[in-house]
């Protein structure tokens, strides 16, 4: 369907692609990945003929159609929502308006006098007009539109809803190749689940750029990585790609080291004997041999971690924030009636539940952005609150540059440290001198996030913080929040982000808060959800909470015990001592297992560096699989150790 032959593209001295090739066939599901600036959007532009390649050819099958959804800012005129979705050709919407005008008995409102009733309806029928409109409305509903929105002027809606209407248009058109740039940015969880399922049955090929690991895992069957200015294809979903990439890096590193040793050996001969007449010809021969060697590049690194420790907030009291008997309603719509909640120091709580259950409302109540109609919201000793949402961008000064705005912080950091952090959130080079008022919505959100990390409060309340972030920036945020010594309550639909951070899950549905005293893996186990993504909307579309667990959630196996009423102080102390010993033993056992796994990993990596191994392809594949398995076990053990160590520290503090 689409073939790239030896494509090269440069901007001045900056080479994005050099002799890159790619084949896209009917039915392919391909995720395009690479670090920020690697050329993902440029590749889309080349395929769409928006700019020419310097060298090479891009060939489409004759008659093959391509549909493209940009990351932001799709055009909108005076069309209604359903008219955007039905815009399968430039003239179709005009024809649809004429038909509706005739059917409403007002043909002169949208039709020229010469447009006859039968002729208009016949042309509309030939283009399957009624089927197109029905399909458009079905797709719009799946993407979250209500029937009363269909005939609303699209320009009255936010940019995110306009993007959904254009996404529906592409799905109605059903092009042979669907090209999507971050399509999940503007979708809520339920729409995302519907969209993901719809794409799994899409008849054409799909080429998608996405920072959403779970979306890629559920959808794609191949990953194409922009690596060393080439397009390298890996089979499988995103997790499988990571395993293959690590194995390929190990193989490439082994080959690189072997070649460097060979070059060093030849160069040593040249350096030693080039001045001796009897050996000069041999030295010259070795020098030419060095020049003829086709160099193997060292494996591309995944990008540097943020290069400084984030400032830490002052320590709060053990009891951080609470709600007691809180009632809240929007008009006649009750959200909470007598709800109680207590958040303790060091907790990292993710809020999950169906759309409209009140997760964002709960976060705003905790942040004091909404006041309860009855009940109390209280803060503990020494607590400072930071609330991050899309509205936080209003706090930025539009006349400042990005760098000046980031430097406006109480934190004792250097300009270089601030620039490093800005670079991790996609502000690099001259972009730090852009004025805030010219930034896109996503750029303003990222800048607000940088400011928050530079001077964090000890209670962070975050609503979808990974929106508009690429994978590198999400990893930088995870790294920052892992260092964060305060308390975190957040909402996210990024499963990777949740797995990395949450140590407690709070399920929100029908005004009821159900705690799960363990990490996200524990929550998945207890709810028996269909998938990790579906569990985020548990109690709504895509997942259910097991009734027994919803009513009587059991504490996680490693969670600190809760004293039973009437047990007395002595009983509590004995229980604490028992739990302390148990946690100490668990931490020691996990440390031994981690050390053993790390030794096994090092041994396997050493095997991969041996060039002789690659003469036995079957054995090499076994070693790669063993290495991937050990890496997975090591990650699980490390996560368990971190959780147990935190619980042990909390128990010791009392």
Question: Describe it for me?
Answer:
The protein is an alpha/beta fold. It is built from 20 helices and 18 strands. The strands form four sheets. Strands 5-6-7-3-8-9 form a six-stranded mixed sheet, sandwiched between helices. The protein has a six-stranded mixed sheet with strand order 14-15-16-12-17-18, sandwiched between helices. Strand 8 (222-227) and strand 9 (230-235) form a beta hairpin. The N and C termini lie far apart (65 Å). 34% of the residues are buried. Residues 540-544 and 546-569 have low confidence and may be disordered.
Q: What are the low-pLDDT stretches, counting only 5+ consecutive residues below 50?
A: 540-544, 546-569
Q: Tell me the structural class.
A: alpha/beta
Distance between the termini: 65 Å
Choose one word for the global shape: globular
What is the percentage of strand-forming residues? Answer: 15-25%
Number of helical stretches of at least 4 residues: 20
Radius of gyration, whole Å: 29 Å
How would you summarize the topology of this molecule?
Elements: E1 2-11, E2 14-24, E3 29-33, H1 40-47, E4 55-60, E5 66-69, H2 81-85, H3 92-103, H4 117-126, H5 129-142, H6 159-173, E6 177-181, H7 189-200, E7 205-209, H8 213-219, E8 222-227, E9 230-235, H9 238-273, H10 280-292, E10 319-330, E11 333-344, E12 348-352, H11 359-367, E13 374-379, E14 385-388, H12 402-407, H13 415-424, H14 441-454, E15 459-463, H15 471-483, E16 487-491, H16 495-501, E17 504-509, E18 512-516, H17 520-527, H18 547-551, H19 568-608, H20 617-653
Helix pairs in contact: 3-4, 5-6, 9-10, 9-20, 19-20
């Amino acid at each position: 369907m689409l073939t790239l032959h030896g494509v090269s593209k440069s901007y001045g001295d900056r080479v994005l692609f050099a002799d890159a090739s790619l084949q896209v066939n009917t039915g392919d599901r391909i995720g395009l990945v690479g670090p920020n600036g690697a050329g993902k959007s440029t590749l889309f532009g080349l395929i769409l003929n928006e700019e020419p390649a310097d060298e090479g050819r891009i060939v489409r099958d004759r008659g093959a159609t391509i549909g493209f959804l940009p990351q932001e800012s799709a055009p909108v005129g005076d069309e209604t929502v359903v008219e955007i979705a039905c815009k399968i050709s430039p003239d179709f919407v005009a024809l649809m308006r004429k038909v509706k005008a005739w059917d409403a008995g007002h043909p002169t409102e949208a039709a020229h006098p010469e447009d006859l009733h039968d002729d208009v309806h016949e042309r509309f029928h030939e283009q399957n007009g009624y089927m197109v409109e029905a399909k458009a409305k079905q797709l719009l509903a799946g993407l979250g539109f209500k029937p009363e929105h269909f005939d609303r002027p699209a320009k009255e809606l936010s940019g995110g809803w306009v993007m959904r209407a254009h996404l529906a248009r592409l799905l109605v058109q059903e092009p042979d190749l669907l090209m999507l740039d971050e399509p999940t940015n503007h979708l809520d969880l339920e729409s995302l689940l519907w969209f993901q399922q719809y794409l799994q049955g899409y008849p054409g090929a799909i080429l998608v750029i996405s920072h959403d690991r779970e979306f890629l895992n559920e959808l794609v069957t191949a990953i194409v990585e922009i690596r060393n200015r080439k397009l390298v294809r890996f089979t499988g979903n995103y997790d499988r790609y990571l395993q293959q990439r690590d194995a390929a890096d190990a193989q490439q590193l082994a080959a690189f080291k072997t070649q460097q040793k060979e070059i060093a050996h030849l160069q040593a001969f040249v350096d030693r004997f080039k001045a001796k007449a009897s050996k000069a010809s041999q030295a010259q021969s070795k020098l030419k041999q060095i020049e003829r060697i086709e160099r193997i590049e060292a494996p591309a690194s995944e990008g540097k971690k943020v290069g400084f420790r984030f400032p830490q907030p002052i320590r709060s009291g053990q009891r951080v924030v609470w709600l007691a008997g809180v009632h809240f309603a929007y008009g006649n719509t009750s959200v909470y009636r007598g709800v109680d909640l207590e958040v303790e120091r060091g907790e990292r709580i993710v809020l999950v539940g169906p759309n409209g259950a009140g997760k964002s409302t709960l976060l705003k109540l905790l942040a004091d952005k909404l006041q309860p109609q009855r009940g109390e919201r209280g803060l503990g000793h020494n607590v400072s609150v930071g609330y991050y949402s899309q509205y936080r961008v209003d706090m930025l000064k539009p006349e400042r540059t990005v760098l000046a705005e980031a430097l406006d912080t109480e934190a004792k950091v250097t300009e270089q440290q601030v620039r490093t952090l800005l670079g991790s959130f996609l502000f690099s080079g001259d972009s730090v001198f852009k004025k805030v008022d010219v930034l896109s919505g996503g750029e303003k959100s990222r800048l607000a996030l940088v400011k928050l990390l530079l001077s964090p409060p000890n209670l962070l309340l975050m609503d979808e913080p990974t929106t508009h972030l690429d994978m590198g920036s999400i990893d930088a945020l995870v790294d920052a929040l892992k260092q964060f010594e305060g308390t975190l309550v957040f909402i996210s639909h990024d499963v990777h982000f949740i797995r990395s951070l949450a140590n407690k899950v709070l399920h929100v549905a029908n005004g009821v808060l159900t705690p799960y005293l363990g990490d996200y893996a524990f929550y998945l186990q207890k709810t028996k959800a269909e998938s990790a993504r579906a569990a985020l909307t548990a109690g709504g579309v895509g997942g259910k909470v097991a009734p027994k667990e919803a009513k009587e959630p059991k504490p996680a196996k490693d969670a600190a015990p809760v004293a039973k009423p009437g047990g007395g102080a002595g009983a509590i102390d004995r229980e604490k001592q028992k739990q302390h010993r148990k946690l100490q033993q668990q931490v020691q056992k996990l440390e031994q297992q981690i050390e053993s796994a790390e030794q096994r990993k090092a041994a396997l990596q050493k095997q991969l560096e041996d060039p002789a191994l690659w003469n036995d392809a079957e054995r090499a594949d076994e070693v790669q699989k063993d290495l991937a398995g050990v890496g997975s076990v090591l990650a699980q053990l490390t996560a368990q150790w971190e959780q147990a160590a935190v619980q042990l520290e909390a128990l010791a503090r009392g």
